[in-house]
Amino acid sequence: MYPAVLIVDDESTIIDSLEGILSDDGFEVMHAYNGYEALKKIEAESPDIVLLDIWMPGMDGIDTLKEIKKMAPNLPVVMITGHGSIESAVDATKSGAFDFLEKPLSIDKIMVTISNALNFRKLEEENIYLRKKAIEKNSITGTSIAVQKLYGEIMAASPSDASILITGENGTGKEMVARTIHQFSTRPEEPFIIINCAAIPEKNIDSELFGHEKGAFDEATSKNKGKFEMASGGTLFLDEIGDMNINTQAKILRALESKTFQRIGGGRTLHMDVRLIASTNKNLEQEIEKGNFRQDLFFRLNVIPIHVPPLRERKGDVPLLVDTFFDKMGLQSSDPKKNLSQEALDLLDQYHWQGNVRELKNLVERLYIMVEGDIIGIQDIPQPYNPGFTSENSIEPIQLFTMDNLELARKTFELEFIRKKVDQEKGDLKATAKRIGSSVHYIKKRMPSF
Ligand SMILES: Nc1ncnc2c1ncn2[C@@H]1O[C@H](COP(=O)(O)OP(=O)(O)OP(=O)(O)O)[C@@H](O)[C@H]1O
Ligand SMILES: [Mg+2]
Prior knowledge:
The protein has 4 domains: 4-134, Rossmann fold, CATH 3.40.50; 160-309, P-loop containing nucleotide triphosphate hydrolases (Rossmann fold, 3-Layer(aba) Sandwich), CATH 3.40.50; 311-393, Helicase, Ruva Protein, domain 3; 394-450, Orthogonal Bundle (Arc Repressor Mutant, subunit A), CATH 1.10.10. It has 19 helices and 16 strands. The longest helix has 31 residues, at 107-137. It has helices spanning 12-24, 35-45, 61-71, 86-94, 107-137, 145-157, 174-183, 205-210, 227-230, 246-258, 284-289, 295-301, 317-332, 342-350, 356-370, 397-400, 406-424, 429-436, 440-446; strands spanning 4-8, 28-32, 49-53, 77-81, 99-102, 164-167, 192-196, 211-212, 224-225, 235-239, 260-261, 270-271, 275-280, 304-307, 339-340, 375-376. By secondary structure, it is of the alpha/beta class. Strand 3 (49-53), helix 3 (61-71) and strand 4 form a beta-alpha-beta unit. The strands form 5 sheets. The protein has a 5-stranded parallel sheet, sandwiched between helices. A 5-stranded parallel sheet has the order 7-10-13-6-14. The protein has a two-stranded antiparallel ribbon with strand order 8-9. The chain binds adenosine-5'-triphosphate and magnesium ion (MG). Residues 140-142, 168, 170-176, 281, 321, 324, 357-358, 361, 445 line the site of adenosine-5'-triphosphate.
């Protein structure tokens, strides 16, 4: 399809000559003699670009441009100006014109400008598409009242810059909620940076948070940005804040209060421009009482509290989530789409899901791989979800070779491996962790049902 150009000018000689040049070059060309006509044409024919004369009787070019921007904000508009009319050119830029062509018109300049504008529009459309995809990917599945309420809270909180504290049990979707808030914030194009507060070694904490200059300490062979600096303009997500060491809490608080920080070994004061979101599965009020968490930091973070409900309180969401996860798995494999039987769905809907959505997701992935055929019945659901289940339903290594997706195969093997080892250690997670060279935290994260 050829790009369609709308030419708007009250002089028919300009329209005729532009039409001639552009149709010779393969464009589809349409025209309008005034602003009103132009708006009607845009609505009816949706051109890809508009060439708009600034001086026209009635509604002039600038007013027409403003109306066009209201109707079609992404449609590129190139203004045609009389020689030397700088002031109107400035006005037009403010109102969203893409570029200018000065009379007398030069053919080369027209072609270059149109091609730039069309490329720009293509990029913009791609950006919009990618953002929409990102929002869909991070969207919170569920129609239960609890999830609808959560959704309302997310929408209300997203556009402000106030700090948010997300609470909820393991695997409820706290990180997903944080990403959704970022997508709907005023800074979706800016970075979303995560600090896992439970995992940073005490020794590296300053450098990790605030960065360092070259030579600040022995290992500092080059300048390094910290997470606060990386998140500049965007969102900083303090994950598992309840596990943050008390000394680190003081450092973060100081930075938040002064809204400034310095790289280690650097004299320059950097200004903080981040939207803060923190999350925890702990009850911070209790942690404050126990002396594990600073009350002043809690108040700074808990400006807008958002609680993510456990899965067992989202009645009716399990079937929807199962379907979403099967869809995702289906995209990674060439097998036909699978489903759970109604009986199996009912069984899972009743379960108490201590590991919440993550546990359900793990189970669905496991069933997808282990069960042949497109309908997964109640007899395929293993313990502890199915008290009536008896046989030893585990995956054989050879089955892994029938999988095409490396990531999936790796994950499946890992889950089965951990499951076997925990069995061999008779459910003792500490002993298992020691035996396989991992941590209880890691095992629990992978296998929330343990
Ligand atoms: N409503 C939902 N729809 C689809 N997938 C979800 C939903 N909620 C969570 N998930 C998926 O469940 C998993 C766990 O979510 P997430 O990591 O956001 O939880 P969390 O609360 O941060 O967990 P943890 O407390 O263990 O850190 C992720 O794989 C996520 O994609
Ligand atoms: Mg998390």
